[in-house]
Amino acid sequence: MVEYASPNTNKPLHLGHVRNVLLGYSVAQILQASGTKVYKTQVVNDRGIHICKSMLVYQKWHEGETPESENMKGDKLVGKYYVEFEKELQKQVKPIVEQFNNADFSQFHELEEKVVPITAEILKLKNILEENTGKFQLPDNLKKDAITEYFGASLSFSEINKNIRNDKSEDISEKDKSELEKLMKPLVSLESKIDDKTSELKEIAKKQTAILKEAQQMLLDWEAGKPEVIALWEKMNGWVYTGFDATFEAIGVDFDKNYYESNTYLLGKDIVDAGLEKGVFYKKEDGSVWIDLTPDGLDEKLVLRKDGTSVYITQDLGTAVQRVKDFPDVGGMVYTVGNEQDYHFKVLFLILKKLGYSWAEHLYHLSYGMVDLPSGKMKSREGTVVDADDLISEMTETAQKIAEELGKLDGYSDEEKARLYKIIGLGALKYYILKVDPKKRILFDPKESVDFAGNTGPFIQYTYARIQSLLRRAEFDVNITLAPEQVNLHEKEKELLKQIAHFPEVVQSAANGHSPALVANYTYDLVKEYNSFYQSIPVLGAEVENEKIFRVQLSKKVGETIKSAFSLLGIDVPERM
By the 8 A CB rule, do 383 and 13 touch? Predict the structure, then answer.
């Protein structure tokens, strides 16, 4: 069973989800091609404080709105409410932090002991920063005119440092940049400490805001089964599921079974009880249940709180066992989850092994690095994520612009053009992401990915389309069987045959390593080999008939291999381009 996607129902899918979905789906395809029966699944995180935040904003300020009335996809509408909640939360946090800084605890007597040391530390650090800033002098050897722009009144030292690092002009030498960064290092460090302490203060203030308390109450009402809260939750989640389905269809992925956290969050308690009897877990004096993994090089891990409520690991234990009950032939699982959860999965897999489940020997965490943009990291709460739907549209538009500039679409209907732009745009996106080893971070540049030269999806698609054009121009039956002695192989043909013969082995390696990158880069190497063959020796222009037939047949086989390889990556190939 391969798990991927697993989104939260408080926001639309974004670029980070896109990497997850493409990786999981591709690994499922590759495992299937290697001879393994595969079930594709996701766990939808449809409960918890995050969805209550969106629900509360809807209830307070937007009651009566629908995706239809707002002309907006349901997942985007709910995501808009989530961002609105965070903005209101920050608005309410600000005056509380000011009260803390002014030592005004008239409303928060119980927090005085906790907050005063933090505000005192912030004040102390600010004084040291101010004192050091006053003493800061630029050495005479630095060109002051060239760096004046970095010392704007509104910029922090960390921002100035960032500007200097990113500066591509020749006005400041690399040596001067390095010296300047060294000088400012203590000031940047002080700013960082102030930021950390201020964040600590904000976290305390958040818990005192009226809006967060209302969201927490809504979560309690949901858990208590309050009818009007459940009805609102079902309505808004319904909007989101419709939105998700449209995005998954646009990306070209599907699932055999969806699990919902609202159904799975209570699972696992019976497993903990059984583990206690076996001696796998132990109970502390306060009633909480733990497992000691220190002999295995890990830590002690809480599996049940003292009040009997579960934690994430409890739910994951229960969900894993439930999946095998639902699909008894499942002998292993692949979890497609970002690398920030590496430790969690080490613990989960080890506990399942200790509990004696045979299939626990075949669990794999498909850990992957984050996706960054040239503009920096994405943040859902601030609404600075790259929406998956917008990304698909942008990729399609970029493909259209480049295809129109190349001017090779004469005779295409508008419908054919639209379909081609989408195939090229999605192919560019998928290939750009999947050609990179899953463990590595990606800096995603949409324009760079839609390039008809180099290691890109469109370059490979273009070669496939060229082969189909060649087959259409062949004026003979390309399925004629030739005996080996009827053809004298050219060195380029031998190299191409070797490359084709590697494909099954590459698929097995990719399945064993859970790495679509192996398939992606194999396909690029095959295409390079084919283009070298195509440019070196005549194909349709070959003088010997049997050589012409064989070279066309070889081209056809390369095209079939490209199509097969790309289908494992979830990428379509166009017949014309």
Answer: no
CA dist., res. 154 & res. 403, Å (int): 44
Q: Which residues, in sequence order, are CB contacts of 105 under 8 Å at separation 6+?
A: 99, 111, 112, 115
Whole-number mean pLDDT of the chain? 91
**C-alpha pair distances (Å), 483 with each of 487, 544, 550:** 8, 15, 10
pLDDT computed for residue 8 by the predictor? 92
Residues 6+ apart with CB under 8 A from 101: 119, 122, 201
Check if the beta carbon of residue 440 is closer than 8 Å to that of residue 432.
Answer: no
CA distances from 50 to 79, 337, 442, 536 (A): 10, 19, 27, 60
- pLDDT, residue 151, reads 67
CB-CB contact of 536 with 529 (8 Å): no
From CA 55, how far away is CA 567, in angstroms rounded?
A: 40
What are residue 551's phi and psi, to 5 degrees?
-70, -35
Pull the structure tokens for residue 190: 């002080």
pLDDT at 150 over 70: no
Compute the distance between CA of residue 233 and CA of residue 262 in angstroms, rounded to an integer.
Answer: 11
Distance CA 394, CA 193 (A): 39
Confidence grade of residue 174 (pLDDT, cut at 50, 70, 90): confident
pLDDT for position 149:
67
Q: Kindly state the DSSP code that residue 279 receives in the 8-state scheme.
A: T
Torsion sign over Cα 170, 175, 181, 184: negative
pTM of the model: 0.87
Please state, in angstroms and rounded to a whole number, the distance separating the CA atoms of residues 383 and 76: 11
Phi/psi region, residue 356 (left: phi>0; alpha: psi -120 to 50; beta: rest), is left
Q: How far is CA 350 from CA 324, 337, 338, 362, 493, in A?
A: 17, 17, 19, 11, 50
Q: What are phi and psi of 441, to 5 degrees?
A: -70, 155
515 near 568, Cβ under 8 Å?
no
